Amino acid sequence: MQFKAGDRIVHPTYGVSEVVRLEERQLAEANKRLYYVLSADKSTVWVPVEATGLRQLTSSTELDKGRALLRGKPASLTTDHRERRLAITESLKNGSFQTLCEVVRDLAAFGWRKSLGEADAALLKRARESLSREWAAATNTTIDEANAEVAALLAKARQTYHS
């Protein structure tokens, strides 16, 4: 997918970014390559055009699906902390908004039964922060407002599915 200057996109590592320009560069001994120059959270990032994982900012239709996922029935996660962390980390590599919603919902639900360990809590915090930043950008709201909506959707799921 080709992006142009001004497009708001999501980078798998840097999150919500804006394409500043497309530029051809030769770095070190390598051949010339096309790069997207991204503005990402007060940083400038150079990303090869052929890089995988870049995607458009979530649409309003995808946001509605995300809302349904967050208030939906959580998937059960394995009780083995190593397997759980590995599975979640692997699923997050695809970088999709849907996966982010599922991870936040499922890890939050896992914590409803018993307190999350340090690693799970850190993973949930990072996933929620990424979700809220993209949510805020896609809805043109503040991160606090996005956090509040995500929390309300999770509370609804907890009320419905946690007995």
The CATH superfamily of the largest domain is identified as CarD-like, C-terminal domain
Q: What low-confidence regions span 5 or more consecutive residues with pLDDT below 50?
A: none
Order of helices and strands: EEEEEHHHHH
Task: Output the radius of gyration.
Answer: 18 Å
User: Would you state the CATH class of the largest domain?
Assistant: Mainly Alpha
Going by CATH, the architecture of the largest domain would be: Up-down Bundle
Across the major sheet, the strand order is: 4-3-2-1-5
Secondary structure: helix percent: 40-55%
Mean pLDDT across every amino acid position: 92
Proportion in β-strands: 15-25%
- Count of distinct strands: 5
CATH topology type of the largest domain: Methane Monooxygenase Hydroxylase, Chain G, domain 1
Your description of this structure?
- It is a single chain.
- The protein is an alpha+beta fold.
- The protein folds into two domains: 49 residues, Thrombin, subunit H (Beta Barrel), CATH 2.40.10; 102 residues, Up-down Bundle (Methane Monooxygenase Hydroxylase, Chain G, domain 1), CATH 1.20.58.1290.
- It is 50% helix and 19% strand.
- The protein has five helices and five strands; from the N terminus they run βββββααααα.
- The protein has a five-stranded antiparallel sheet with strand order 4-3-2-1-5.
- Strand 3 and strand 4 form a beta hairpin.
- Helix 3 packs across helix 4.
- It is globular and about 60 Å long.
- The model has no long low-confidence stretch (mean pLDDT 92).
